[in-house]
């Protein structure tokens, strides 16, 4: 492995061991690199573009750890649709579990959202005034969208979700949370459009989401209910995908989520993530675990197919743990030289 550094590598021993690297077999003054620098150089060489392992274009995993081949085909045709609201940072995380839902479920949408940098504007259109839009129409990332009629409710928020202005036919002095409670947005569905002001002060459209009737948000809040208290037919499950702090921030910066009934899962178990990603406490599950357990609790789905998704997730965690152990072993061997 160290042959890549050249033929003039010599290990010196003593109280301050180091590697000397010579530019040629002659004897010019050596360039001294300490052990930690050498280890960093070794790891950088291994991760250089020329040494990158080929990756699967579907799951973005190295081909030797491809998830696609572990999923059953055809994919599970879930009767309850799933909408994943994914934090932009989580989208590129190598251990993101929502990709398993995207690959293994037929009826799933993944909508990427980002933190509010300075100010974001939301337009809400309720189905009574927007009936021409079909179910589950959604676009994101500044893609062209069909013209929407004037919003029923428009509001602007600043960073961390504080409401700064409210534009609609309602009393301007009315509390925003009371306003949302007064709206029956769940029964008939609604559309949400978000535009965000960037650092250049220009507003750009981030997403348009169609929230169909019968939507349920999987999120623990003081108003959350257990599955036994859900008194309507669930057609769409909305899940926030990100670390717990990121999910909490997404919830605060998307006040329209308060329109939805909130579901909490009474599951007191540690996530399979526990060995490779930090979990705050028992019950804080990965996105794919949350989706699977929620769909199981609601009922009407293929239980074997859902368990297969968990098996794929567990295999991904096992792969990561093995790679971590091998890396630690390699680093230990270098330090002991």
UniProtKB/TrEMBL annotation:
Coiled-coil stretches: none
Family matches, as SMART domains: DTW
Root EC class: transferase
Keyword S-adenosyl-L-methionine: yes
Matches recorded under Pfam families: DTW
Catalytic activity: a uridine in tRNA + S-adenosyl-L-methionine = a 3-[(3S)-3-amino-3-carboxypropyl]uridine in tRNA + S-methyl-5'-thioadenosine + H(+)
Any one GO MF annotation of this record: tRNA-uridine aminocarboxypropyltransferase activity
EC number: 2.5.1.25
All copies of domain DTW, residue ranges: 52-325
Domain of life: Eukaryota
InterPro entries: DTW, DTWD2/TAPT
Biological processes annotated in GO: tRNA processing
Keywords assigned: S-adenosyl-L-methionine, Transferase, tRNA processing
Family note: Belongs to the TDD superfamily. DTWD2 family.
Name this polypeptide is given: tRNA-uridine aminocarboxypropyltransferase
């Amino acid at each position: 492995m160290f042959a890549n550094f050249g033929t003039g590598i010599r290990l010196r021993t003593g109280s301050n061991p180091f590697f000397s690297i010579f530019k040629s077999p002659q004897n010019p003054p050596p360039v001294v690199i300490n052990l930690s620098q050498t280890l960093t150089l070794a790891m950088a060489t291994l991760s250089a573009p020329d040494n990158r392992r080929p990756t699967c274009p579907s799951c973005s995993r190295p081909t030797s750890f491809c998830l696609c081949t572990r999923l059953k085909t055809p994919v599970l045709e879930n009767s309850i649709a799933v909408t994943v609201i994914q934090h932009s940072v989580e989208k590129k995380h190598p251990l993101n579990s929502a990709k398993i839902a995207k690959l293994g479920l037929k009826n799933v949408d993944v909508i990427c959202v980002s933190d509010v940098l300075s100010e974001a504007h939301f337009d809400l259109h309720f189905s009574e005034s927007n009936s021409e839009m079909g179910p589950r129409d959604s676009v994101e990332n500044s893609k062209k969208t069909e013209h929407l009629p004037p919003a029923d409710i428009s509001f602007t928020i600043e960073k961390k979700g504080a409401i700064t202005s409210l534009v609609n036919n309602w009393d301007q002095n009315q509390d925003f949370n009371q306003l949302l409670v007064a709206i029956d947005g769940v029964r008939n569905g609604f559309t949400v459009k978000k535009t965000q002001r960037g650092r250049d002060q220009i507003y750009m459209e981030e997403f348009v989401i169609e929230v169909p009737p019968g939507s349920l948000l999987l999120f623990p809040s003081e108003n959350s209910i257990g599955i036994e208290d859900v008194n309507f037919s669930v057609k769409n499950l909305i899940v926030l995908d990100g670390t717990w702090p990121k999910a909490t921030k997404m919830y605060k910066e998307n006040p329209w989520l308060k329109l939805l009934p909130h579901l909490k899962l009474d599951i007191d178990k540690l996530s399979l993530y526990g060995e490779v990603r930090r979990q705050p406490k028992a019950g804080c599950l990965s996105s794919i675990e949350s989706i699977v357990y929620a769909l199981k609790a609601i009922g009407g789905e293929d239980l074997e197919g859902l368990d297969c998704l968990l098996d794929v997730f567990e295999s991904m965690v096992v792969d990561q743990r093995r790679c971590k152990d091998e890396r630690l072993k390699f680093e230990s061997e270098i330090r002991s030289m």
